[in-house]
Amino acid sequence: MGLGLKNFSELRFVAAARNWASRISQQDLNDAYLKNAALQAELEGVREELLLTKQQKEAAEKLAYTDALTGLPNRRAFEDKIHSLASLAQRHNWDVNNGTHVNDEEVEKAIVVISFDLDHFKSINDVYGHDTGDEALKLAAAVARKVFHRGDDMVARLGGEEFAVIYEVEAEKALRSAKQMADNLYDAINRECHLNVNPLMNDATNITQHDINEKYLSSDTSRVIRKITASIGVTLFTPSGEGSAKEIVAEVMRRADQATYDAKNNGRNCIRFIDAPWNIIARRPYDPPAAANAASATA
């Protein structure tokens, strides 16, 4: 027969297969192809929907951690950052202190928190309106970001006129770094946070010399420039194995608030440290470094 079949059963199987194949029409093949294409399209649609859902979720999470006005991280993001840094530093410092770190040259890590509130912010809103208040907040945020521009630095808006900065540094350098960075922030705010305000507003029509010293850069009521200042509080800590990260977050926020409160109680537009070997009140009223240097050179 030429098929090489061993028995009648195999012959019957081949005949049945040929009979089944002969019944499949071109239309059946087309229908199967279209059904497969529809299934592939449906699967692709599901994949796109899942991707969109993931992107929407990521966008929602970003919004939940971002201040809408300034674009800075918000209080929730800031507290999460403290939690993360504290947990990592606790493990790192434990390894260093117990000699289990892979690198013998590693040193303890400290965390610096610099909080600051814009001074007399309520009066800015009351006198010039909330739009001007929003501009003051955005300006302060931009200035702070210029000062703290390293990738690991976080500048956050905690709410209202409250801002805070957090960064990690070697423990032995923490005090010096905190003082330098707080001074840099103080100088930048006094140098760059100026608003052109509406001269028709209430307190621009009768500017006294005291006002000029404290709040304005010009007494020309055709072009009133309002100074923005801040009360700055600084705290730093070296996480050890004691206390949970949650407890550390609560304690750090309490100490940062206390430091800022102390700055406000000491006349505003100044810097106060808490739990440090010294307590610093920065220059007030603002004395530009260039002018101060020139004065000392001629003295």
Key phrases:
single chain; 299 residues; alpha+beta; Alpha-Beta Plaits; 2 domains; five-stranded mixed β-sheet; two-stranded antiparallel sheet; 9 helices; 7 strands; 54% helix; elongated; disordered C terminus
Q: Name the strands of the widest sheet in spatial order.
A: 2-3-1-6-7
Shape: elongated
Total beta strand runs: 7
Order of helices and strands: HHHEHHEEHEHEEHEH
In short:
The protein is α+β, with helices and mostly antiparallel strands and 299 residues long. It has nine helices and seven strands. The protein has helices spanning 8-23, 26-64, 75-97, 121-128, 130-147, 174-192, 209-214, 245-265, 289-298; strands spanning 109-118, 154-159, 162-170, 194-197, 224-227, 230-237, 271-273.
Q: What does this protein structure show overall?
A:
This protein has 299 residues and is an alpha+beta fold. The chain folds into 2 domains: 22-64; 75-193 and 228-298, Alpha-Beta Plaits. 54% of the residues lie in helices and 15% in strands. The protein has helices at residues 8-23, 26-64, 75-97, 121-128, 130-147, 174-192, 209-214, 245-265, 289-298; strands at 109-118, 154-159, 162-170, 194-197, 224-227, 230-237, 271-273. Strands 2-3-1-6-7 form a 5-stranded mixed beta sheet, with helices on both faces. Strands 4-5 form a two-stranded antiparallel sheet. A hairpin with a 2-residue loop joins strand 2 and strand 3. The longest helix has 39 residues, at 26-64. It is elongated.
